[in-house]
Amino acid sequence: MTGRPAETWKKFSFATPPDWAYALLLLVCLGGIGVAAYAVVIAIVSQRASGYLPLTRSSARTATLAFWIPVGILIAWPVCWFIALVVSVAGNNDPTANTFAAVLLFLGLACLLAGLVGRLVITRLIRPRAKVMQAAPGQTDRIVELRNVHPAFVAAVQQHQQARAVQYAPAPQAPFLPGPK
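Predicted structure:
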């Protein structure tokens, strides 16, 4: 990701839904059930691939933080709302408790929005992304097109692929020379 020599390997998982699956976004209009149905269908029909990519220690740490910070913020959202519910029920007519519950509701909403922006926007800009294609006929592996990688990484992969292609290329045949009759 940085163009510097790799110091460690980090496992990444990628999933790409087929193009027709985005038409199912209409299910989101049904509310919570539609969102759950959309998520289940996308999870079932997506092409998946995983593997290890070479990274520097700092970029591996950055990629890990770009994943876990939004997830932690998203986990804080229902926790804030649960605490707000408990505080509002426990302090029936206490104006301080109701104000605290309202602050927790808004804090939970802010956590929800920040977590979604972090997970859906920021994470995509920082971590490597990929498009997973269907397996070609006669092949067992899927082709994975990586994005958000440094051009030096692309050049190194192309050099590695060319070296492997030369290794598996058939040996050139000697020209056939007709002998004396």
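Summary: Residues 136 and 142 are 7 Å apart (CA to CA).
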